[in-house]
């Protein structure tokens, strides 16, 4: 059966000082075709994940590549497709940003230099080499759902902390070969550019990211373990980009595995083991009320509009910060 919704994740680093002028025409084009999701525009390029009918998404990609408005600037963008039975986004947003992926390191300029791209078919051989340091550049809650064998977890809450990890844990004189990966490839563009600027000699990154690998490498040959977190209502995907088993905790927004949901602390729609402390009482109360409304809507045979997952990363970062601060206070006491 053909799935009704086509999802496109795309990005390209390209110099565009006129990026602000693109906001309105992009929003109008997408809204006219009921395309939903989020697009980020910055002086350094474009980044986003959008969903709509296959025809609408195909129209959008063609327009970005060939439309006179863009002058060919988005040709050659990294584009990945997947499919879903239902629309994973609630609205359409085009946002203007200072960076399409925030690192706050001016020396990281993918337009000037990036690491060596590695095709998914060649990735296994590279990360199996003993002299290669394999680094997961994603944040801690993403890594918790799944990662590659032998990969190091920087334990970052935000991508900007990656600089601190490099400074404290990596040495260009000692670590001669570094292989990194992320969800769709964009963070590694910035990360590899940054590491080259810091003097690292051989820096490799997985072209198209984990999503490209899961799509192209057969499961029986895969070195990937677990599921890959994605920033929409699918929550996670596995091999073949099939929707995974993970769910979001509606109180603290942490992704939960099937095993997490068997723990005694888990209450459907209300709390999980990450947010049982007093500092999360207000969030649990709000989640409990939301769950009540979902159940009432279901009893009436109606759908309940959930929270847009595009807000999840910031909410989770703040929740993690509060939880860790509470932990520090308890330990200090």
UniProtKB/TrEMBL annotation:
Determine if Oxidoreductase is one of this entry's keywords.
yes
Annotated GO molecular function terms are: oxidoreductase activity, acting on paired donors, with incorporation or reduction of molecular oxygen
Catalysed reaction, written as an equation? uridine(34) in tRNA + AH2 + O2 = 5-hydroxyuridine(34) in tRNA + A + H2O
Q: InterPro entries under this entry?
A: Rhodanese-like_dom, Rhodanese-like_dom_sf, TrhO, TRHO_N
Known function: Catalyzes oxygen-dependent 5-hydroxyuridine (ho5U) modification at position 34 in tRNAs.
Q: PANTHER family given for it?
A: RHODANESE-LIKE DOMAIN-CONTAINING PROTEIN 7-RELATED, THIOSULFATE SULFURTRANSFERASE/RHODANESE-LIKE DOMAIN-CONTAINING PROTEIN 2
Per its UniProt record, what HAMAP family does this chain match? TrhO (MF_00469)
Name under which the protein is recorded: tRNA uridine(34) hydroxylase
What organism does the UniProt record list as the source?
Pelagibacterium luteolum
* Gene field: trhO
């Amino acid at each position: 059966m053909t799935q009704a919704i086509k999802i496109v994740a795309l990005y390209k680093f390209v110099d565009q000082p006129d990026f602000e002028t693109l906001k309105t025409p992009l929003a109008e084009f997408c809204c006219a075709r009921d395309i939903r999701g989020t697009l980020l525009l910055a002086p350094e390029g474009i980044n986003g994940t959008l969903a709509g009918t296959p025809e609408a998404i195909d129209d959008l990609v063609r327009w970005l590549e060939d439309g006179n408005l863009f002058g060919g600037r988005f040709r050659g963008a990294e584009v990945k497709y997947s499919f879903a039975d239902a629309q994973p986004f609630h609205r359409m947003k085009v946002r203007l940003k200072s960076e399409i992926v925030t690192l706050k390191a001016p020396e990281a300029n993918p337009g000037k230099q990036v690491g060596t791209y590695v095709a998914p078919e060649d990735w296994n051989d590279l990360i199996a080499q003993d002299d290669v340091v394999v680094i997961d550049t994603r944040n801690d809650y993403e890594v918790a759902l799944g990662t590659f064998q032998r990969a190091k977890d920087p334990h970052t809450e935000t991508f900007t902390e990656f600089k601190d990890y490099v400074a404290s844990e990596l040495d260009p004189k000692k670590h001669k070969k570094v292989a990194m990966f992320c969800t769709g490839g964009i963070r590694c563009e910035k990360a590899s550019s940054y590491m080259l600027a810091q003097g690292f000699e051989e820096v490799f990154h997985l072209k198209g990211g984990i999503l490209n690998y899961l799509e192209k490498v057969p499961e029986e040959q895969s070195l990937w373990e677990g599921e890959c977190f994605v920033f929409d209502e699918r929550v996670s995907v596995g091999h073949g980009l099939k929707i995974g088993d993970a769910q979001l905790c509606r109180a603290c927004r942490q992704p939960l595995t099937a095993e997490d949901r068997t723990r005694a602390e888990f209450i459907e729609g209300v709390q999980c083991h990450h947010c049982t402390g007093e500092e999360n009482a207000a969030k649990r109360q709000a989640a409990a009320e939301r769950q009540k409304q979902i159940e009432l809507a279901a009893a009436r045979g109606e759908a309940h509009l959930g929270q847009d997952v595009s807000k999840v990363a910031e909410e989770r970062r703040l929740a993690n910060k509060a939880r860790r601060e509470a932990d520090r206070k308890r330990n200090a006491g």
